[in-house]
Amino acid sequence: MRKRNIGLYTAMCLLYGLLMTGCAAEADSTAVQVTEDTASVESSTEEITEAAIDYSAGVSDDEVMETAFTEDVDASVEAHNVAEISGTEYGDRYIACDTVSVTYNVDNPTGFFEQKVSKNLEFCFDKETGAWDLVAETLTGCEVDSSVIPGSSWKGEADELKKLFGSDIPEGDTGEVYIRFNKRAGLFAFNMNNENNTSSERFYTTSGTGGKATWVGAEGNVEVSFKVTDGSVTDAGDMIMNVVSDAGTIGINFGTDVVTATEMEYDMAVSGEIEEGKIYIDNLDRFEVTSSSIEGEEWKLLTGGKEENQSPELSWDEVEGASLYAVMMIDKDANNWLHWYVKVDKTHLDEGEYNSKETGYVGPYPPETHKYDVYVVALKGAPEKDGFLLDATGEDVSSKLTTLNTAADGSTGNVISYGTVGANFTPGSDYYGDR
Known about the structure:
The chain has helices at 2-52, 61-68, 263-270, 397-404, and strands at 74-84, 94-106, 115-126, 131-144, 153-156, 175-181, 189-190, 201-205, 210-217, 220-234, 239-245, 248-253, 259-261, 285-286, 289-290, 294-295, 298-299, 314-316, 324-331, 337-344, 348-349, 370-379, 415-425. It is α+β, with helices and mostly antiparallel strands. It starts with a helix and ends in a 10-residue tail after the last strand. Mean pLDDT is 86; it is low at 1-51.
């Protein structure tokens, strides 16, 4: 009996074991299936997620501004170029790239030398984070408004400036350095591939830009000639010129090392006197001139010399004591190129009232965007002489006003006041070959 019970117990245990083994096997089979199904779902989800990513619109303009610029920078997005990629030097996680063309303006602390800078910003889309990363930027253009340079005057006390004079300054002498540029200065040429360029500094070369520097000291004046060879501009507004004299080369930051001086201030400091009858435009009263021929900060295309050659509309209020007004349009970017000169006895000119060289108007026709200023000068009467050469380079505005300041009877004081209005002109085609 005892042996049978043990046998029955053993049999029951064997049966139980077989049942449990089958359950375990079935459980293992079910687990494998669940795992495979889960992996399939995850794979499917990943595919759906990647397929659902829409980067065709590229990075948003707001994100471009927030990533690449500070709030006080006047910048704008010009264009996007989105393309799919598969692995780059920046990593395999990027699946698309947006090359964003931007422009921004930089002002010199003095208010002069405004810069317009163009760049391409390269943003790559990260499939892991779903974000656009700024990975590179390339300088594509830089323009500097150098129209203020011809004939301008500057002054400074920096010790570095003394090096322009070498040993000509008496030891221990104290004073200031005054700088005046020639009335005809060269243009700044930027090389976008210059290896010295950085994301915030751009280098240029120039020729034909020069002038004279005068040490005004307690023991007398010392004068040297100089020329500018090259330099750089920065996003901080610095305008640095490498100035060369017989004594050597120094870098001058215009706006920091030197600041602007009026023409009268320069004349008084350097020569100690003011030329009789000379007009200092900074000392003249001004009146407002308006023009409906300016649209969007640009002269209408119809005012162009190679377009319809229609003179701009002008309006101003009558000036007390004036019997005549001289009207001039000047391109300072082209060494004071004179495009318009007429004398009128009224305070309004219709658009297109002048339309030929014979009537006194040859409209703008620059090779690229230039700034054109119109001056209206209130005169007591007819000037003694005013044979300004039209459609040609010439004297600056102050010199022209000095000529107008002598009346027909030979007396001085003919100029009462002036007004000005200006805008850019962008050619509709390349005019340079027609000049």
